Amino acid sequence: MVLRKARNRVPDHSISTAPTFNEVSLVKDILQSEGLITEKALHDKLKGKIKSTALKKIIEYFEKEHYIYIGEKGINWILNENPKFKKILAKTTIVR
User: Fold this and answer.
1) pTM of the model as a whole
2) Domains of the chain with CATH codes
3) Which long-range contacts (CB under 8 A, 24 or more apart) does 37-45 make?
């Protein structure tokens, strides 16, 4: 039996994991309850619960899907899930 020397493997940082459902839900709950919040304040609230790379991915996703607005003063949740609002939108006509 011949033993081979183990190669030193370099971790591949190009492979990243996606945020979990619980992490996305936690960020969503905080953004909805806080109103306007700075990115630093959000990061401080989540200290130890979520990695900063996962938080950045979640924020990018929410912004891409138009759930949040990121302005000079911070992040604001803008998605309106009120059923009355959805009914009104369904009845309106779009003028182009």
Assistant:
1) 0.70
2) 21-91 (1.10.10)
3) 37/74, 37/75, 37/76, 38/73, 38/74, 38/75, 39/74, 39/75, 41/74, 42/75
